[in-house]
Amino acid sequence: MKIGLFTSGYQRNPLEHAFIDAKRFGYDYIELWGGRPHAYAPDLKNGDINIIKSLMEKYDVQILGYTPEHNAYPYNFMIGSESMRRDCIEYLKLCMDMGKEMGAEFTMISPAHAGYGTRYDEMWNRLTTTVRELADYAEKIQHKIVVEALTPYETNVVKSANDLARLFDHVDSPHVVGMCDIVPPFVQGESIMAYFDLLKDKMRHMHVIDGKNGEDTHYLPGEGDIPLAELLSEIEAYGYEGAATIELVTSYINEPRLYAKRAIDQLRALMERR
Question: Which residues are catalytic?
């Protein structure tokens, strides 16, 4: 299983540090966070894509996925007026263009909170309409969308493997697939392996970190409550051949270089215990 470095935790450092560290610590790829100051899609369109390409070439590090920021600041396609939804769709289309141009295999989306007063039928109509539009564009440019389920602390829309399976029933496109961040199922008492059982060939990516009961904080592998060594063994037995990003976000933002090293070392040690 290939292991990737997520760049969100480096947002107070030069982006080049993430590429340097991915190379020297032995990460197989980078998952590029799409926010300022590093890789915000409009900035990439205005010329910064050349910075990304030069870093990839200089350090010989692949960008497997592009993960644009769109969970309410300022974009969230699940809430607000129709003009706000359309604005987010156009933004995500640009993100897919930039993901495609940098050679990423996919652009990731995660349906955020739809508002406390929104009925399920309303939110699901908005979700499926939006993802269908994005799927049509992904097909047009021959790119993939990976949809991520979030925790109940972050969304009231897509929170589980069942939610993803339901979405794929409504939007049946080979250009739209799913993934599992292992913290959302863990914190809500869902089986992590249910993602493999329910999504089957739509299960294409993972975020592997650690978590603790009752919170959505992403911890270094081995420093939370998830039985990671046993989980990794089950994933291997299942035959999963996709990649897994160590998604350290902002909990370790003060020293991302130190924790990126510890994270992959500890994950490798857990993998060896399988």
Answer: 148, 247
Query: Cα 38 from chain centroid?
Result: 17
pLDDT tens track for 209-224? 999 988 889 999 999 9
Q: In the chain, what are the domain boundaries? A: 2-272
Tell me the two tokens of residue 264. 């992959």
3-state SS string for 178-228: EEEECHHHHHCCCCCCHHHHHHHHHEEEEECCECCCCCCCCECCCCCCCCH
DSSP labels, 116-183: TT--HHHHHHHHHHHHHHHHHHHHHHT-EEEE----TTT-SS--SHHHHHHHHHHS--TTEEEEEESH
Q: How far apart are CA 50 and CA 272, in angstroms?
A: 38
Closest listed residue to residue 130, CA positions, set 176, 165, 163, 67: 176
Give the Cβ contact number of residue 64 at 10 Å: 20
Q: How far apart are the first and last CA of the chain?
A: 13
Give how far the C-alpha of residue 120 lies from the chain's centroid of Cα atoms, to the nearest Å.
Answer: 24
- pTM equals 0.96
Q: Residue 159: CA atoms inside 13 Å, Cβ hemisphere, count?
A: 15
| Per-residue pLDDT band at 274 (split at 50, 70, 90) | low
What are the beta bridge partners of residue 5?
Answer: 30, 246
Domain at 2-272: CATH architecture: Alpha-Beta Barrel (3.20)
Residue 109's nearest CA partner among 149, 52, 61 is 149
Judge whether 155 and 115 are in contact, CB under 8 Å. Answer: no
